[in-house]
Write a structure and sequence with these properties.
2 copies of one chain form a homodimer. With 432 residues, chain A is an alpha+beta fold. Helix content of chain A is 46%, strand content 20%.
Chain lengths: 432, 432
């Protein structure tokens, strides 16, 4: 390792000589830029760090430690989720559990309006996360109960048969049927009738079809559930999200708890030409309508309809982390927009004055903590940390009343009048 | 209580009749508005709630439960603190302790540059919180040690005498002196010499004066500390914050830990004409220079100079809460910008279409979950929750291609063309 560093050091010195010579010779700017780039690469390999620094802000958010990269991903996810909920009028309460509850304390809300909003929220969150294609399955407990009744399932077996149906996303129909008949004592005929229903999924068309179904339409509960499902799909169409929602008669989650609409959002694997349908890679959100108790507000502890959404945060984090790893996307761990740099020595005061102006205008800015840092080291620091802009103070620039603004990615440099600098940085970093 | 409600109900009915009659008579709009306002007040007293709802978002931020009002204050405080640190290039790490550390891993940073930035950060945070007037006291361990030496304190007594000096913000000089002499065995002469120094506080002038001080200027450590203090004040002047910083020789916090500059931010009580100086109501931030170990990066575990800031979050929260209580300021617990309301019945679909457009443009919007809510109830909901704007959909407005935008505070109403509505709401709520 020491030898390697010495070799690198020698290469670095030689490359620095080349750059110096080219500059003295006033060589072609493109050639100079190319040689400077090589020099920066060598410096990066050697890990020189003149006045580099690192602020680390520790916040009391949890008990587990995450590294800055993980935290950056977690922050992005939280930001999208929380801003979506706030866009829908949510209050934030500080508890160890992440969940959303939709209360109507005194009045009753009209059917399906809050349910549709919850699905819109899930749709906005999953779209915002850009986590891949997704589908939200919906069903209704009343439709499931009605279906079991018309298929000839005894009342006492509703719950246990329901939990078998819920295995359909992982098991085949044959396995599910054999559990129903073998373990749970259902007649093979009843099981087959269930089998015909639970393979159905679709949208408004399927709802209309089932409202005409000779058996199901005779059941009061099922009719109620299907009527509300139709209303829900009408609202989802108005929201422009019906294409991502699938009415799916095999969805049977948490029926001990939910009393009406239930839903579950799943991520889909990228579509494959050899497969007919995209494959689910797991549930990332779910919820439904349940009877809440409003004991806190109502001394009689009356039941009040509630709609809940919960987001599978940890699952989303690990999918996002995997995605970042796979894409080799560089995740920045700071949000710094601009490095304030000096082109020559003895410009510390000018750097301090400029950076103070930038901070006071809300711009995220850093500078190296050296009195006279080398320009190359300042540029290298931006390459390492992903800072997109450099505001370079130089003697000539000071005389001209300008600051040289360098775009790190393209190496483009432009003189900006000092009084326009803040506006220009905001414009280039899309900060309002 | 029941009688009271009945009386209120009767008053409400009578007031509603009055409003109805005035409207039929096409009375003077100002008179109608006045009577409607009375009606709204009565409704508020009765607490009618037609389709009112409440989203509650629970986040896994901590273990203690706060109510929505407390959370709104905590969120505001956190937002200001974290955005300030991020403006200065901080990474965020998730741990149970809130503190900031300023690492220079391989190189040494030049004197006082990061120290000045830490003071700028504290200044930005306390200004941003608008928590009242404040002062940041600074001192340096080397100045204190030099001062003890020239006053004739034996080396072995530096630490214990220092901890007595630290009591000066709560005790009188007489009490402090008697502890030094009586309990700690210092000579009264040495104590008196300390007494002369520790009552000094000021800025660059005081530093210059002490650099000329016949005793202190003979001490190498004190000279070093004063030289750096001068540099620090020059940087603070460039940052435009020197007027809030006081070089105070009685500041002696945490000297077992800090090795150079130390500082402490205190809030000041409102100035009183009868008092000569504002009185401190306690420390809200502090920090200083210390020797960190960089074991993680340096196998030899070498010492590396670090500058730390810690913010007294819980203290700031309780001061902010008290301030809100005292001012009777209404703290909103949601951020909703606009309520989408209907002027007549049968406009649910139009409300759903409009609110969906608003959400998709990033506007925070709510609607009541009733199919046909009364306009009065919709307006009352805004009064109760502090929503500033109402976008009213009506039959005539639909025909004209406009939406009526109502400013809740002024009751001003203006027709806005549908295609300009989003821009107009953003303009009025200062959302970029």
């Amino acid at each position: 390792m020491a030898d390697e560093a010495a070799d690198l050091g020698e290469a670095l010195r030689r490359q620095a000589d080349t750059v110096r010579r080219l500059k003295q010779e006033k060589a072609n700017p493109e050639e100079v830029a190319e040689q400077v780039a090589k020099l920066l690469e060598l410096k990066a390999q050697l890990g020189t760090d003149e006045g580099k620094h690192k602020f680390v802000l520790k916040t009391p958010k949890g008990t587990r430690d995450y590294n800055p990269k993980q935290m950056a991903i977690r922050e992005k996810v939280f930001d999208i989720i929380i801003s979506t909920f706030k866009r829908h009028g949510a209050e934030v309460i500080d508890t160890p559990v992440f969940e959303l509850k939709d209360f109507d304390i005194a009045g009753q809300f009209d059917p399906m309006i809050p349910d549709a909003e919850c699905l819109k929220i899930v749709h906005e969150i999953l779209s915002g996360l850009q986590i891949g294609d997704f589908l939200i399955k919906v069903n209704d407990r009343r439709i499931l109960d009605g279906m079991f009744a018309v298929c000839g399932v005894p009342d006492s077996k509703f719950r246990t048969i329901c939990s078998t149906v819920d295995k359909l996303d992982k098991a085949t129909w044959e396995d599910v049927k054999s559990e129903m008949v073998g373990e749970k004592g259902l007649s093979p005929e009843a099981a087959d009738r269930i089998g015909e229903y639970v393979q159905l999924h679709g949208g408004l068309g399927l709802i209309e079809q089932l409202l005409q179904d000779p058996k199901l339409s005779q059941n009061k509960l099922a009719r109620e559930g299907l009527g509300d499902m139709k209303l829900l799909f009408e609202y989802l169409t108005l929201f422009g999200i019906a294409d991502k929602i699938s009415f799916d008669l095999s969805l049977a989650r948490g029926l001990d708890y939910y009393t009406g609409v239930i839903y579950e959002a799943i991520l889909l694997q990228p579509q494959n030409a050899h497969k007919e349908e995209p494959v689910s890679v797991g549930s990332v959100a779910g919820g439904g309508r349940y009877d809440g108790l409003v004991g806190m507000f109502d001394p009689k502890g009356r039941k009040v309809p509630c709609v809940g959404v919960s987001i599978g945060i940890e699952r989303i984090f690990s999918i996002m982390e995997q995605k970042v790893e796979a894409s080799e996307e560089k995740i920045r761990t700071t949000e710094t927009q601009v490095l304030v740099a000096a082109a020559q020595k003895k410009l510390l005061e000018e750097r301090l004055k400029l950076i103070s102006e930038l901070w006071d205008s809300g711009i995220k800015a850093e500078m190296l903590y050296k009195k006279n840092p080398k320009l190359l080291n300042q540029l290298q620091y931006c390459e390492d940390t992903g800072i997109p802009l450099v505001a370079i103070v130089g003697e000539q620039e000071l005389k001209d009343g300008v600051v040289k603004l360098r775009v790190v990615a393209t190496r483009e440099e432009v003189d900006v009048r000092r009084e326009n600098l803040i506006e220009e940085i905001k414009r280039r970093t899309c900060q309002p």
